[in-house]
Amino acid sequence: VQLVESGGGLVQPGGSLRLSCVASGFTISRYAMNWYRQVSGKERELVARISITGSSTNYVDSVKGRFTISRDNARNTVYLQMNYLKPEDTAVYYCNVRMGEYDYWGQGTQVTVSS
């Protein structure tokens, strides 16, 4: 199982970024997929979750209306579209899949929101 995130970077407040998570070693169509984020010294926070079919999504309150999680099962890829970014969105963003009792993580991608 491998998850590889990309798309992070430095953006000004109010800007947008699109994160991608390419999965290999398994088929994402069988699993709900998640995006987490972590600020140094703080616990990892669940940002968004998408169901197996994509028909159901959930977001932490602080990103509702600004972030959108989506999936392309044919490409084995999950996305996180982030709009109207704020400095408090600055963090390392991780893609995650839970298989039974095991959690798998990517290496993370840094998002920095600053003027």
Give a nutshell description of this structure.
Helices cover 0% and strands 53% of the residues. The chain is mostly beta strands and 115 residues long.
Helix-strand pattern, N to C? EEEEEEEEEEE
In round numbers, the mean pLDDT is 97
Percent of residues in beta strands: over 45%
Largest sheet: 7 strands, mixed
Globular, elongated, flat, extended or rod-shaped: what is the shape? Answer: globular
The total strand number stands at 11
Structural class: mainly beta
Radius of gyration: 13 Å
Estimate percent helicity.
under 10%
Euclidean distance between termini CA atoms: 37 Å
Note poorly predicted spans: none
Give the count of helical stretches. 0
